[in-house]
Automatic annotation (TrEMBL):
Its EC number is 2.4.2.1. It comes from Pipra filicauda. The gene is LOC113987844. This is Purine nucleoside phosphorylase. One of its GO terms (biological process) is nucleoside metabolic process. Pathway: Purine metabolism; purine nucleoside salvage.
Length: 297
């Protein structure tokens, strides 16, 4: 039952019975980004604990609440909190909210996250508009699409070359406030929950990733399976350890940047995300009319 079509359908029916208006657009808030829900007018709020079959949020900065209201003129659902594989949830549980919202009639999904910078051009406060992703858990067999395929969600072999909608991406890049230094790039999803070692960062950079996090990729795969349009936004909250740090450490006895660079921590991630959310909110409002347009792919 966990994460099954029937579970999602029950959750969707429960919500439909209570909603003034079913959402057409949905937004998943990354760590510390829950304030994005404050842009909704006429909000109705539901604790995950009350929605049938919804998992519980266990991570600080993920409130565990679904808020449904209007973003601009269009009906929109905001998930204040997502589920991660490292919490012990199965891939199907992680994507259960996305599938539930698809069954409610959502056609466009905005996935936000807090991420570490791998590319030298990215710094805390910057926005990576996701052009493509590397789904490391998925490549290793932990995709939400593994198992018997339920055709009511989508086809056995969905394409992912068009995972992130190019038109929405271009629009987000054009409308992002200058404070976000928005640029397109590749997000790599890892299992977590430990942050990366230097060697792992070097590996991920060589794989072609610009930013790293522990979410988003499973949700994007499930969303595309259901035919949703996806926009992915990574707010950079910290710099992942760089090659220079390691070289300095090896050659210089620890007196260089390696000795000074603070290791990433969730408190720092939350603080940077809350700061960046101010600008992200402006971007979402600017995007609202175009998010509301459209239909399933
Ligand atoms: O991806 P979101 O949910 O924003 O959270 C990010 O922040 C946490 C680490 O600080 C991890 O869960 C990572 O994935
Ligand atoms: N894996 C990973 N997730 C993050 N989430 C926010 N920052 C980071 C990071 O540096 N690494």
């Amino acid at each position: 039952m966990e994460g099954s079509y029937e579970a999602c359908a029950e959750a969707a029916a429960w919500l439909r019975a209570r909603l003034q208006e079913p959402p057409r657009v949905a937004l998943v808030c990354g760590s510390g980004l829950g304030a994005l829900a404050q842009e909704l007018t006429d909000p109705q709020s539901f604790d995950y604990a009350d929605i049938p079959h919804f998992p519980r949020s266990t991570v600080q900065g993920h409130a565990g609440r679904l808020v449904v209201g209007r973003l601009g003129a269009g009906p929109c659902a905001v998930l204040q909190g997502r589920f991660h594989l490292y919490e012990g949830y199965s891939p199907a549980q992680v994507v259960m909210p996305v599938r539930t919202l698809a069954l409610l009639g959502v056609h466009t999904l905005v996935l936000t996250n807090a991420a570490g910078a791998l590319s030298p051009g990215l710094a805390p406060g910057h926005l990576l508009v996701i052009r493509d992703h590397i789904d490391l858990p998925g490549l290793a067999g932990r995709s939400p699409l593994v198992g018997p395929n339920d055709e009511r969600f989508g086809p056995r072999f969905p394409a992912m070359t068009d995972g992130y909608d190019p038109a929405l991406r271009r629009l987000a890049l054009a409308l992002a406030p200058p404070e976000l230094h928005a640029r397109p790039g590749v997000y790599v999803g890892v299992g977590g929950p430990s942050y990366e070692t230097w060697a792992e960062c070097r590996l991920l950079r060589r794989l072609g990733a610009d930013a790293v996090g522990m979410s988003t990729v499973s949700e994007a795969a499930a969303a595309r399976h259901c035919g949703l349009r996806v926009l992915g936004l990574s707010l950079i909250t910290n710099a992942a350890p760089g090659d220079a740090d390691e070289e300095e450490e090896e050659g210089g006895g620890g007196a260089g940047p390696a000795a000074e660079a603070a290791p990433p921590g969730h408190e720092e991630v939350l603080a940077a995300a809350q700061e960046g959310a101010r600008h992200l909110r402006r971007l979402l409002l600017a995007l609202a009319p175009r998010l509301a347009e459209g239909a399933r792919a």
